Amino acid sequence: MPQTVVISFFKYQGKRRKWKALGRMGRPPLSHTSVSGLTFWKALGSGSGNGFSIWPDFSTYGLLTVFNSEIEAKAFLASELMLLYTESCIAHTHVLMHTVKAHGQWSQQEPFVTAKTYDESVPLAVITRATIKPKLAYKFWKYVPSVSKSMNGHAGLIFSKGIGEWPLLMQATFSLWNTGEDMMQYAYLNKKHADMIKKTRALGWYSEELFARFHPFEIQGSLIDFSL
């Protein structure tokens, strides 16, 4: 069976539950548990808005998990370990995906293995992730807000969220698009985003970066209102 990638989002309400969720991110239950088929994982905080953001969103947290198979991924989602995340949240979503393209590294690893052929006419999910060089962080964050705002209301965008392991320096985005063609139009025809790509190449902001595309095949939960 092909590798299965899962990105999960959990939304919490109330100070006590938010603080508990923040503490769980700092001390992830997966750190102390062996999970069948799990090959890579990251506990993720989130930023306000829909992309890279300097301001945190303390109500929403993410979890990225990669499994050898769909069976093992679904067994994890149905496990008691997952209840630690879902039992106190007001909404959550699991997006199950197959990788169609990936390049770059995350924590000096290449976690995503191509499992399906890319089809631009079907829904597409994208993860972009980077470790920003500290000496260039100011320049990076100077340009980011306008790029993130350029996603608002863009045709074909279903959902997007800024995520990250560490504020300001280890950042990522997850976006879900109605079709691959919609994503490509934003990435290369939207002036703000196209200019950001040029600046990234010219200035070398990142010490590590990764870009990956996925075809989602199942969405569980209610946080993302979209049916495959």
Describe, in short, the structure shown.
28% of the residues lie in helices and 36% in strands.
Give a verbal description of the structure:
There is one protein chain. The protein has 228 residues and is α+β, with helices and mostly antiparallel strands. The chain has one domain: Alpha-Beta Plaits (2-Layer Sandwich). The chain is 28% helix and 36% strand. It contains 6 helices and 8 strands. It has helices at 15-26, 70-77, 80-86, 137-149, 180-189, 191-203, and strands at 4-11, 38-46, 60-67, 91-104, 124-132, 157-166, 170-177, 206-221. An 8-stranded antiparallel beta barrel has the order 1-3-2-6-7-5-8-4. The longest helix is centred in the middle third of the chain and has 13 residues, at 137-149. It starts with a strand and ends in a 7-residue tail after the last strand. The model has no long low-confidence stretch (mean pLDDT 86).
